[in-house]
Design goal:
The chain is an alpha/beta fold. It has 15 helices and 16 strands. It binds dihydropyrimidine-2,4(1H,3H)-dione and zinc ion (ZN) (3 copies). Its EC number is 3.5.2.2.
């Protein structure tokens, strides 16, 4: 057939093994992986000597073209085309986006996202966001799992009065997930307390972006994380905590895993590599771009979360890519509560994790593949179609040059956002080639993506309940406690 590529002489990396080998791609699928593959003249050859050949990144957490926090003017600025193009330029070849119900209906929400995703230029999957609870939602969850290829549902313990659900309803949701073989996910912050914290800041006259961080400290993330973990333990069903941003929340996950509970913790790249100092920038436009929930934390948290990733306490890295441009962020110029929540990351994640964790020697290259790709494919039940360089796997592959460098700027990124929270970052390791579905789409700093070429990846329900999750060692935790608690300092 027509689309054959041979990647020669690179170090092929999977989550548990690396070796110098060739990778032969035929018609979108990896046909062979072994040293010294011989091919005819008609096959395109890429020389990968001295470079790493790895499964393309899978971002477990994105929000493309999402209406959020009220009005349509706060719809996220990246759609399924621009967001995915950005992803491909940064070495991510698949993502899982959160479907938002339409008027509370999961089926209408699913339909709307099928429409939005027609622009796709890489494969994608869906989680379903649960924004309220009743019998219809419960019935529709069953349809999503049995017919639509969704095996994960996210519940909000924050955003009071908008999408927050109480414990009674969370328990219903957990039971339903368990009966369907689906994975329950939670946004873990105590929404009632956040509401109180916000009121307090406004009363104190703190209306700027720093009020966002001060109003919802790590304590509230830890409380909700602990509560969700215990309720999932009570129902005896696995739980996935999205965007783990603080030491405090991470420790709750570590404790539960130590006791053998099936809990997955997902840090996001902003939480790993940034700190909250940007939120205190006197320039509103700069400060506002860092506003996301849970907030980016004080110095110390990111380092501890990286340590937790390196020890397996947290299992995979996402982004929560949710971009708003500065005119949208300016919606909250007089009141931080109105700043649309979200930061970029879909294009930067692979580079930043390489730079801060692999180039610095904190994790191995095989661990890099595990936390950026393989673990996500395993957790959402699409391994080894995705997340591996094995015969029969989809040919979603990146070639990374460890001796080259990358540079981040809103002037050169591929997102439609006019800002970048990693502005000016220069780091080691560069994704020089991205192959998606067997086609080279990123090479020589040039994107050649095909609108509409991405496919929907159905994620089947689980017939096992994460037997494989290992118990974590928590003995190191006390040594990681460090960050300044600015909220306490305010009182
Ligand atoms: N947090 C964000 O920052 N954006 C999207 C949703 C969320 O929980
Ligand atoms: Zn829209
Ligand atoms: Zn969230
Ligand atoms: Zn999110």
């Amino acid at each position: 057939s027509s689309r054959r590529i041979l990647i020669k002489g690179g170090t092929v990396v999977n989550a548990h093994h690396q070796e110098v080998a060739d990778v032969y791609i035929d018609d979108g699928i990896i046909a062979d992986v072994k040293p010294n593959i011989k091919v005819g003249d008609e096959v395109a050859v890429i020389d990968a000597t001295g470079k790493f050949v790895m499964p393309g990144g899978i971002d477990p957490h994105t929000h493309l073209e999402m209406e959020f926090m009220g009005t349509d003017s706060t719809e996220t600025i990246d759609d399924f085309f621009s967001g995915q193009a950005a992803a491909l330029a940064g070495g991510t070849t698949m993502h899982i986006d959160f479907v938002m119900p339409v008027n509370g209906s999961l089926s209408l929400g699913f339909k709307a996202y099928v429409e939005k995703a027609k622009k796709s230029c890489m494969d994608y999957g869906f989680h379903m966001t649960i924004t309220k609870w009743d019998d219809t939602v419960a019935r529709e969850m069953e349809i999503m799992v049995k017919e639509k290829g969704i095996n994960s549902f996210k519940f909000f313990l924050a955003y009071k009065g908008i999408v927050m659900i109480n414990d009674e309803l969370l328990l219903e949701g957990l039971k339903k997930c368990k009966s369907l073989g689906a994975l329950a996910m939670v946004h873990a912050e105590n929404g009632d307390a956040v509401f109180e914290g916000q009121k307090r800041m406004i009363e104190l006259g703190i209306t700027g972006p720093e009020g966002h961080a001060l109003s919802r400290p790590p304590l509230l993330e830890a409380e909700a994380t602990a509560r969700a973990i215990r309720l999932a333990g009570f129902i005896n069903t696995p739980l996935y905590i999205v965007h783990v941003m603080s030491i405090d929340a991470m420790e709750e996950i570590a404790k539960a895993r130590k006791l053998g509970q099936r809990v997955v913790g997902e840090p996001v790249v902003s939480g790993l590599v940034l700190n909250d100092s940007g939120l205190w920038d006197p320039d509103f436009n700069i400060a506002a771009k860092f506003v996301m929930s849970p907030p980016i934390r004080a110095p110390g948290h990111g380092r501890a979360l990286q340590a937790a990733v390196s020890m397996g306490v947290l299992q995979l890295v996402g982004t929560d890519h949710c971009t708003f441009n500065s005119t949208q962020k300016a919606f909250g110029i007089d009141d931080f509560r109105k700043i649309p929540n979200g930061v970029n990351g879909i294009e930067e994640r692979m580079h930043l994790v390489w730079d801060t964790m692999v180039a610095s020697g904190k994790i191995s290259v095989t661990d890099y593949v595990r936390i950026t790709s393989t673990e996500c494919a395993r957790i959402f039940n699409i391994y080894p179609k995705k997340g591996a360089i094995l015969p029969g796997s989809d040919a979603d592959i990146i070639i990374l040059n460890p001796n080259s460098s990358f540079q981040i700027s809103s002037n050169s990124h591929h997102s439609r956002s006019d800002t970048n929270v990693y502005e000016g970052w220069i780091g080691k390791g560069k994704v020089e080639i991205t192959i998606v579905g067997g086609r080279i789409v990123w090479e020589n700093n040039e994107l050649k993506v095909n609108l509409g070429s991405g496919k929907y990846i159905k994620m089947p329900p689980f017939n096992y309940l994460f037997d494989g999750i290992e118990k974590a060692d928590v003995s190191y935790i006390s040594s990681l406690r460090a960050p300044v608690n600015r909220f306490k300092a305010m009182q």
